[in-house]
Model the fold of this input.
Amino acid sequence: MGNTAEADSGRLFKILPDREGIPNHNPTFDRVLAEHGCGLLTRSEVVTLQINVGKRCNQACHHCHVDAGPKRSEMMREEVAERLLELLAASPSIRTVDITGGAPELNPNFRRLVIRSRESGREVIDRCNLTILEVAGQEDLAEFLQAQQVEVVASLPCYLGDNVDRQRGKGVFESSIRSLRHLNGLGYGREGTGYILNLVYNPQGPSLPPPQDVLEEDYRRELGDKFGIVFNRLFTLANMPIQRFGSTLITKGEFDRYMSLLRQAHRDENLDGVMCRDLVSVDWRGYLYDCDFNQMLDLPLSGPDGTRRRLEDLLTDDLDRNPITVAGHCYGCTAGQGSSCGGALKEAAE
Done:
């Protein structure tokens, strides 16, 4: 959880290696699609704009695919945020604004993006690490989210304190529980209030999550009985083999085994449900990507001439049927217990 991991992981694992020629290594994802007769993965109409407003965070978690941390300086500037709002005003098809980071709330433009997005009738999601609610200067954050009717997707990688603190840092679990109680007190997670609180589970290491519906019942029982906490849904996400987590896998010699595990869990049926089919990801500089994971691997959404697409290109370019850039990490989404930011899709057979 120290600064060394934060600084080194980007250098060790900037791009997911293809590493062709290594015995028993997985073929690339696009070749697997061809083998299954699936052809190119393409986008339909863009209905979700996922905005990564920067890499600064009050935590530095082991599994973080963003490589975020307290010392990161990358933050979306005001002029980029303004272009985002101009895009929303001109793009009626976009129904959801999904704001992430880092800890997105640390960006000084966060609240303006939320307010203006809600004023334009969009649903807004805040991907929240919970402990941010107790950071100095954020004391009114929960009340702000409630007033704007923002859906909170809160990361809580386990219902056991020791496991959470091992993955995220000492004291994180207790702070998370206090924040969840605070949100519950405002009506979040309670039936009939309309204030949505969803939790997110990540495995501790290079393994797939357990079945989502079973784990959700465990969370309800453990958090309810011990702390009186309620929530709407639990999303189980597979750890992506990129950035900080990917670097750890390579260092421990577990990268190839984890990639094999993800590929074995792949299901063609999940290709229709992965988030990149109707989502575009925006980075803190205003560049576009097929998803947040491609963003972290610097695999940009490019135009016909090969240049990087920016926010303003969405005003003129039609992305319907646009090919999606894929690589080995995509197995993390098509695995049944996979990612796609909205939880598990169809799980692989035993």
Observations:
- DSSP finds twelve helices and eight strands in the chain.
- The mean pLDDT is 84.
- Residues 3-334 form a domain with the TIM Barrel fold (CATH 3.20.20.70).
- Residues 159 and 226 are 10 Å apart (CA to CA).
